[in-house]
Amino acid sequence: NAHNFPLDLAAVEAPAINV
């Protein structure tokens, strides 16, 4: 869970796309 994209906040259970 990277803090780069707000997407991670929504998907805490699943790994967010941090590229």
From TrEMBL:
Keywords: Chloroplast, Plastid. This is PsbA. It comes from Archidendron kanisii. The gene is psbA.
